[in-house]
Amino acid sequence: MPSRFLTLADVTEVLNISAPQAYALVRSGELPAIQIGGRLQWRIESAELEKYIQRMYEETRARNSSEATSSTDAG
Question: Which domain range does residue 15 map to?
Fold first, then answer.
């Protein structure tokens, strides 16, 4: 059974980003997470990571679409 929760290290590996970048995503609330344990370690639900990835795809598509529209308007 796949793990329900991921560590920040797992997120850095999946997204191929640095640890500070993953931490910033969590601290900003862009990537929902919880803190658990005596040391309050961050855990990210794998479903939340998938939602984040889908949001980034949608934002990228929208940005690319608007850039394509503005470039055809300019020409």
Answer: 5-69
